[in-house]
Amino acid sequence: KQEVTQIPAALSVPEGENLVLNCSFTDSAIYNLQWFRQDPGKGLTSLLLIQSSQREQTSGRLNASLDKSSGRSTLYIAASQPGDSATYLCAVDQGAQKLVFGQGTRLTINP
Amino acid sequence: NAGVTQTPKFRVLKTGQSMTLLCAQDMNHEYMYWYRQDPGMGLRLIHYSVGEGTTAKGEVPDGYNVSRLKKQNFLLGLESAAPSQTSVYFCATQRGNTEAFFGQGTRLTVV
Known about the structure:
By secondary structure, chain A is mainly beta.
């Protein structure tokens, strides 16, 4: 059974810092990996999707990498801002587009 | 273009009552999903559908039923609500191996 782990569970950093969120998964047979953002009381918003054949994806200040062989992905956030405060979740697609989620990292950016 | 719309947004049920949650999408996506999100458990897949008229069980299907009579709608039913079904329910849609889109969630409390 696929298990997805995100460490740390919570992270607090001062504004302007660069930071890395981690995601690991136990079964490397995945189709893709997605990173989502969830604001309190809201739904999930997809940030980046990395196909299994890709190594990384970039969108603005966000960069996500994927190492299937080691079962790891990282989300790099450059020059963090208070508006980046949210919970970040990663999810792997194991087929039929069924996503298996990690429990998320709650990120707080302090002004 | 509303995307994914869930109805209702909040509901309180008494144990044993029944209800139906509606998910409507206007993106013409084939795949639709129902997840529940619980503290410490992350998001877990309840049921999903790969097309109109088809449904399948996910990780935690017990106590729920679903129907996909029209491509744009995916209904989640609770036949006899239990306190263990207190949760936040999310609907999601996807087209093939692409990003998933989520609704804003339904917060359900069973007393």
